[in-house]
Amino acid sequence: MKQNARFLGVDDGAFSPDDKRVLVVGALLKGSCELEAVLSTWVEKDGCDATEKIAGMVLKSRKKDQIKAVFLQGSTLAGFNLVDPVLLHKRTGIPIVCVYRKKPDWEKVGIALEKLGKTIEPPELHEYSGGWFQVAGINADSARQLIESLLVRSKIPEPVRYAHVIASGVTTGESTRKV
């Protein structure tokens, strides 16, 4: 990994059952540890706007041309607001990597989504030392090397960990060490 490479981690904040919208935070890191910028947007809880909202957040950033990859913790935000990694890559031109600490049970996810009138085609998953991942706009081996290079304090890449800490701290008043 180049020392000056920039990576964006994206995660949502805490929300309650009554919330209509949920805060989504992007943490832009230079290398694996230097926080350079924080981006944010709002998405509809259990909605269908996460992909477009994240794309807009990225494309509005002054640093968009410097972002080498976008990392998400999973492919859903704000409950079951699905992110389409392929479409997000097409909209931004940036490789997308969704990381999962545990292998998703797509059958259970599908059942939950059906209740909301949504469907999902289970993506191809790849394994790394801390969990699982899916990709768009980058091959699995390159993504795995990138993920491994960004593992510092947990089993998820630092950009996602930063986004989680910031989002949970803003929405709950104090972040936790859950990641």
What does this structure look like?
The structure is a single chain. With 179 residues, this protein is an alpha+beta fold. It has a single domain, classed as 2-Layer Sandwich (archaeoglobus fulgidus dsm 4304 fold). Helices cover 30% and strands 30% of the residues. The strands form two sheets. The protein has a seven-stranded mixed sheet with strand order 3-2-1-4-7-9-8, sandwiched between helices. The longest helix has 15 residues. The protein starts with 5 loop residues before the first strand and ends in a 7-residue tail after the last helix. The model has no long low-confidence stretch (mean pLDDT 93).
Briefly say what this structure is.
The protein is of the alpha+beta class and 179 residues long. Helices cover 30% and strands 30% of the residues.
